[in-house]
Amino acid sequence: MNRSSAFSYLCNACGFCCHNKVITLSPYDVIRLARAAGASTREAIDRFTIRRGSILKFYDGGACVALEGTRCGVHRGRPLACRLYPIGIEHIEAAISEKFVRLEPAEGSLGVYGVDGNVDNFLAAQGVDEYLAANARYAWLLAVFRERIGATVDLDRVEPREFWRRAVREALAESNYDANPLIDAMFDAGGIPGIDEEEIVTAHIQRLAELIRCESNAEILAAAAVMLAVSLGYSPAEVQ
Ligand code: SF4
């Protein structure tokens, strides 16, 4: 589907779609979660996420930790994937390359699919574009990573494929991962409720760029680059 494809969806707030999902979070998702919860990004990471801030947390029983009854407790700051649902997006770099897919309903869902509007109307109603715009700003950091990794890694000593394989493994590890100050800083923007969101994002991206340029450990850089790429909806290969 593209933005003009016929599509509508009526959510009946049954809460079924808020169970048993794997939802990848971007740095901007974490900022928005924090602001909706009236918390710092550090607190939001601890309350709502796993894997260093990069995945939304679900209880063992299957419910998202933000679910309150059948309602989202952070509705104003719900992540991009929750806003898009039941649509999936295949590439988020620029509107020209966007492709949308209709996702299957969650088991038992009372949501109603229709064709009373189009994809664009649906995305506008869900506030999706501000998330895509913020993610596009963070994507600029991938070029900063590439440049720094190129200047840091010694490819006479490391085999490139093995170097990137290790980076992907490290970025996507569920546990027992190495300390990585860039990944920590990526999801913890230090956002304070009340400060303008645009300012938080701008300051955060600048701080990350400085940290990347000061980092001299190629493995730390590569794992963080992969983490950022995945969190923004790219494949790990897109940073190499
Ligand atoms: S963040 Fe909100 S909308 Fe998203 S899965 Fe959790 S409860 Fe549902």
Explain what this protein looks like in three dimensions.
The strands form four sheets. This protein has a two-stranded antiparallel sheet with strand order 1-8. A two-stranded antiparallel sheet has the order 2-3. The chain is mainly alpha-helical and 240 residues long. β2 and β3 form a beta hairpin. The protein is built from nine helices and eight strands. Helix content is 45%, strand content 11%. The longest helix has 25 residues. Iron/sulfur cluster (SF4) binds next to loops.
Describe this protein with a few key phrases.
two-stranded antiparallel ribbon, binds iron/sulfur cluster, single chain
Describe the structure concisely.
With 240 residues, the chain is mostly helical. The protein has helices spanning 27-37, 41-48, 80-84, 119-125, 128-152, 160-172, 181-187, 197-214, 218-231; strands spanning 6-10, 49-50, 55-56, 67-68, 71-72, 87-89, 100-102, 112-118. The model has no long low-confidence stretch (mean pLDDT 92).
Overall average pLDDT: 92
Total strands: the figure is 8
The SSE string, one letter per element, is EHHEEEEHEEEHHHHHH
Largest sheet data: 2 strands, antiparallel
* Structural class assignment: mainly alpha
Strand fraction band?
A: 5-15%
Give the arrangement of secondary structure elements.
Layout: E1 6-10, H1 27-37, H2 41-48, E2 49-50, E3 55-56, E4 67-68, E5 71-72, H3 80-84, E6 87-89, E7 100-102, E8 112-118, H4 119-125, H5 128-152, H6 160-172, H7 181-187, H8 197-214, H9 218-231
Antiparallel strand pairs: 1-8, 2-3, 4-5, 6-7
The structure holds iron/sulfur cluster (SF4).
